[in-house]
Fold DUF2490 domain-containing protein.
Amino acid sequence: MAINIYRFIVGFAIYISLVSLVKADGLAVDRIYAPYVNSLEKELEYRISSAEGGSGASSDYIIQRLGFGAAVNDSIALEAYLSAEGEEDADRLSGYELELRWQLSEQGEYAVDWGAVFEYEHSRDSKLEELAGKLVALKEWGAMVTTANASLIYESSDVAGEEFETALSLQARYRYRPMLEPALEFYAAEDYRGMGPVLVGAIRLAAANSLRWEVGTIFGLDDRSADYVFRLMLEYEFY
């Protein structure tokens, strides 16, 4: 039974990954999730993505998110975000998001570690409702870590009606030191293709707490994509 489930997950990941190369929109550059949930963990998180240039839907756009989350057990974590977004600034509350992260396999149980993320987003400005499911896969190759997020998204809005979309994000990261891990990220969406360097790090604090950070610039790969997208994430984990 476990083998059948594993084969299903692998097949689904390959299917979504292939479809993701053809369709999805919005500002695709964002956090790339790992499949793990730490029991008893709580976190405060801030993220910003800012796109500049280009002719696509994601050009000259800013999204900010501020969230709080906590692990329910050793495999499920919940998080809620307040979001602000706009074409030139993002200083006004525009919506909220709810997120569930699910660790599907134990670390090292299979050749690839698996997880899933389910999201609900409401935007009051564009009257948008969005449901998303992400399949998360992580594989270690010595000091190299590769992570893939393949997403299936349902959107409903007064402007565009109802539609399904897909998205794909990939990260290859080198574990140089805990405080400094260089990475390369790739994003695919209907109106966006981008790739660029990212730096990842974690600072250990007292009582097993930590501050994790990610910062990078993703460059557009075609004329429809934003010229570049700056992204930053700060995450304070505590117990």
Observations:
- The longest helix spans residues 2-20.
- The two ends are 35 Å apart (CA to CA).
- Residues 1-6, 15-25 have pLDDT under 50 and may be disordered.
